[in-house]
Amino acid sequence: MIISKDQIADIAMGGAFLATGGGGDVLVGKMTTEEILRRHGDVELMPLEALDDAATVIAIGSVGAPTIMQEKVSNGMEALWALQALEAYLGRKADALIAFEAGGLNALVPFLVGAQRKLPVLDADGMGRALPELQMETFSIYGVKATPLSMAGDLGDNAVINTRNSAVAEKLVRQFAIHAGGGHCCSAEHVMDGKTAKRVSVPGTISLCHRIGASLGTHYGKLDLFLADLQTILKDTHYGKMKCLFEGKIADVARRVEGGFDMGDLRLESFGADKKEMRIAIQNEYLIAKLDGEVVATVPDLIILIDHETCRPITSETIHYGHRVAVIGIGAPPIMTTPEAMKVLAPRCFGFDTDYKPL
Amino acid sequence: MRLGIDVGGTHTDAVLMDGGDVCASHKALTTADISSGIIAAINGVLKNKKDLSPSAVTAVMLGTTQFTNAVVERKKLAQVAAIRIGAQSTSALPPFMDWPGDLTRALGGHCHMIDGGHEYDGSEIVPFDEAAFETAITDIRSKNLKAAALCSVFSPVNAATELLCRDRLQDAIPGIEVALSHQIGKIGLYQRENATLLNAALMGFARDIVAAFESSFAGLGINAPFFISQNDGTLMSAGFAADFPVLTFSSGPTNSMRGALYLSGLKDAMVVDVGGTTSDIGMLMNGFPRQSGTSVEIGGVLTNFRMPDVLAIGLGGGSLVAEDGKTVGPDSVGHQLITEGLVFGGSRLTATDIAVAAKHVAIGDESRVAALKPDTIRQALETMRDLLGQNIDKMKTSAGDLPLVVVGGGGFLVPDDLPGISEVIHPNHGSVANAIGAALAQVGAEAEIVYTRGERERGDALAEVQKQAKDNAVKAGADPAHITITEIEETPMSYMAKPTMRLHVKAVGDLARGAKDGARA
């Protein structure tokens, strides 16, 4: 499939949907990507099956505070500079790019580079959603080393690091973002061959973003039609069950910053007289949903809040008291719920005193 | 006495307030030149109150949609030089991106991308490129542009470059209108720059309008200070409005809610303003209209303005009713109600006809609806109740029952028993609630700061930003002795090594006595 700037808006909207509340506002990312594709041309979206086993695949994306990216909106070069730094270190070039995260802005970052370098972008990613840390990528979970990893900021400063494990790399990337990018940088990482990429990636996620985004456009403001269409779209994918968990209003938002994360708790009240109550825990993303005290959905399954009137996904940074929402749960793909994946993706890994409860 | 004026699409309403009392009100038709409609409305009020001398008017407050309309209709807009400072961090998103083509053309699409700008902590990204700025000035002069919009990265945190550039521009090109982004919007470059561009395009027009209004008032013998409504339900002095016309966007719904607040005396209530075609539903919280959480588009351009969260539904006095009564609206005869409605001798069944048939109101010729089937009437009333009830509940953000204040000309459509509503109130003078809202509004202003915990005490940062907001309120015409902080919004910025917070503060104050054209910020 060829992606032109005309498809970017749908991929961005679908990316915002899969972001489960994280990933920042995609509007700015959408416009910058459209501009770069307008300047440099279309990009091939390649299914995993079409990838050569011997190809060199590199994962890319951006890291940083969404609020900062709303202000320093990017020059479109940071991800390309990161890739170039890593290629120079490796002494070889990438044959294909993969998003390390399909949720939010990061569904788009590979296209910025793909357009400028005429490289295909794989229809897959390393998270199947948005998640806060590098070691949560399926690439790391299934044994691919995150490093050598390169980073680049808006002024062209870059660095290549080699670390014992993904967790250490994650810490260094954050420090680099603060000191060389004013709170934001792009990284290139998880160098792997095509055969490995097929084994360790969540397949089909970028085209899924595109389909969900298109559906949100078609069914703008028609919740029932959108949910029915989403059900149909998800049937062709690796994702599990889809459920509408709740419809109601945000009755309270409590938030705080801990360890560089945007933490919070939402309390929702249902519309109408029955007054059911839902609580949702936030760590950048929506991670746990409880209905009248009982856990109904947990990470790694997707918990997505959409605006009840427009059906547009809502980020955890912008959710506010009084927002009228629908809460959607989607079962994570099997690659994210294996015993290996549970070692980093189970609710307890995020500090919650509850086990994974599949939808 | 205060004179409140609301310039709407169809009617220009004027209301004279003595302290808290409505002394007189008048509805006139809105005219193409706006001024003569305003003069007609004021004359109507003065006629209603014969013993009144125009000099007894101590302040004039005006709500207007003219600046919004200028953008929507692409009229009266000046060409603008868009000057972005922070090119190396933002060049993938140049000014005018995603704008409707005709609006970009109206503003000329002149862009200058210059290196400079600041990080979130106020430090320089790279030094400001003075040579590039000089080249931009030469270009602006050669194109004979009369307005410029300056937008520097993180200027809400550090405004130094925008201020420096303004001084240089005004020295080099005397009389040029310059809009500074840090005075107009919050963090969020794209939306802030959009608002700044629109503001720059409107400044010349705004200055003319304000002067025209002032001379109209003077012609009527009114020499009182003159204020214009902002979209958050507060006022700014006319001089301030000439510098910041974009701040008037969407002040209409705000004024009707503020009017409802005043007329009902309720600080927490639901409000419905029923017009000819639509009903606007909003909520009063702690004496202010609840603000929308999402960005608002003006004329196809995304901004980050403060707007009241209002849900417009297609139900008004002129809404068409299906024969079985199961559908009411959104199609409407609108302003033709007084010729097309059944009770007015027309042939279309409207919501007003149903209300007359049900004896909820006595308008027109009742006999013309005598033949309507009771089933149709009952069903149509039920349809309207469901439509209002469900949408009012959607807008309600607290679980308990709240009173509902009904304003606007079609208020008789609202039934007395609605789910989640404790009491339905139809206040006196409800049909001119907008003008009353304008007359009674206070003066407001905002300020913003980013601080890092550990490097700076929260209390210290909060004190600074509150002082900034209060200073801004005084500049906008508030009495320094009567200003209160009404909103403190604290947003965490994730991914920072140390907890970093953005503090946004709003201050609201009573009008300073004798305030006249508050100092320009």
How would you describe what is shown here?
The complex is a heterodimer of chains A (359) and B (521). Chain A is of the alpha+beta class. Chain A folds into two domains: 2-203, CV3147-like domain (CV3147-like fold); 222-349, no CATH class. Chain A contains eleven helices and 16 strands. Chain A has helices spanning 5-18, 27-40, 66-69, 78-90, 109-117, 138-141, 166-181, 194-200, 205-218, 223-235, 339-345, and strands at 2-3, 43-46, 56-64, 96-99, 121-125, 149-152, 158-161, 184-193, 202-203, 242-258, 261-270, 277-283, 285-291, 294-298, 302-307, 324-330. In chain A, the strands form two sheets. In chain A, strands 1, 2, 3, 4, 5, 6, 7, 8 and 9 form a nine-stranded mixed sheet that branches. Chain A is globular. The model of chain A has no long low-confidence stretch (mean pLDDT 94). Chain B has 521 residues and is an alpha/beta fold. Among the domains of chain B are: 74-207, Rossmann fold (3-Layer(aba) Sandwich), CATH 3.40.50; 442-511. Chain B is built from 14 helices and 23 strands. Chain B has helices at residues 35-48, 66-73, 87-90, 101-107, 130-142, 160-172, 189-219, 238-243, 251-264, 337-340, 351-357, 374-395, 433-440, 458-475; strands spanning 2-7, 11-18, 21-29, 59-64, 80-85, 110-114, 147-152, 177-180, 226-229, 234-237, 269-274, 279-285, 288-289, 296-298, 301-303, 311-313, 319-321, 328-332, 402-407, 421-425, 442-452, 478-493, 500-511. In chain B, helix 1 crosses helix 7 (189-219). Chain B starts with a strand and ends in a 10-residue tail after the last strand. The model of chain B is unreliable at 514-521 (pLDDT under 50). At the A-B interface, helix 2, helix 3, helix 7, strand 10 and strand 11 of A face helix 3, strand 22 and strand 23 of B.
